Amino acid sequence: MNKFKTHIFIILTLATVTLLFWGCDNYSDDQKEYIAKLDKFRTEKNIEFRDSSYSPFNRKSKVEFHPLNYFNANFDFIFTGKLIENNIKDTVKVYGTKGEERKSVRYGLLKLKNKKHNLDVNIYETLARDGVTKYYSIWFTDKTTNNESYGVGRYVDFELNSNPNFIYTVDFNYSYNPYCAYSSEYSCAIPTKEDYLDIAIEAGEKKFHE
Q1: pLDDT, tens digit, 9 for 90 and up, residues 94-114
Q2: 65-82, pLDDT tens digit by residue?
Q3: Distance (Å, rounded) from C-alpha 31 to C-alpha 75?
Q4: What is the C-alpha R_g of the chain?
């Protein structure tokens, strides 16, 4: 890693954050703290994607790196709600962007809401390559898909809680593109038509390629 370049990169990013706050007296202290935390996360991800040998820019492809594109922090796209586990967990076909068929279990439905919207979001259960470990995913498309955001769709990390009454928080400001958004070397799961959210999720990562 070139420490000098990384240092300059951080300075420029912090300058951008300063401009973001300029004239934003309507933000509460908690909101300003949230935005600073989000921007720190994005800066660190940019550095990791630029420098890590495991990033999609360095491992399989020669795509030229530039900082990832994001919507500004948007508090209208932070939701809370409960997970309703499906009594019958259907195995569904999910296709990758290279056309290969995959199988996942539609585990349950997150009933999310905030002051402006109600959303039903599918949770998928998938076996890892070891054939034993299970992981859980949110994939979605919305009204920004193939416009401001990546045409295949975006993902949000999800961790299952064993408590059936647990209140989840889903923050679309942390939604991100799969690796296939950067390089055709990769294949990623395509959200199904049941994963479409009928609003414009103007939060999280935008298109990388114009």
Answers
A1: 999 999 999 999 999 999 999
A2: 999 999 999 999 999 999
A3: 9
A4: 18
Instruction: Please name which of 113, 125, 104 lies closest in space to residue 168, comparing C-alpha atoms.
Output: 113
Residue 7 identity (one-letter amino acid): H
User: How far, rounded to the nearest angstrom, does the alpha carbon of residue 20 sit from its chain's CA centroid?
Assistant: 22
Any idea where the domains of the chain sit in the sequence?
Answer: 3-51, 75-195
- Secondary structure (H, E, C), the chain: CCHHHHHHHHHHHHHHHHHHHCCCCCCCHHHHHHHHHHHHHHHHHHHHHHHCCCCCCCCCCCCCCCCCCECCCCHHHEEEEEEEECCCCCEEEEEECCCCEEEEEEEEEEEEECCCCEEEEEEEEEECCCCCCEEEEEEEECCCECCCECCCCEEEECCCCCCCCCCEEEEHHHCECCHHHCCCCCCCECCCHHHECCCCCCCCECCCCC
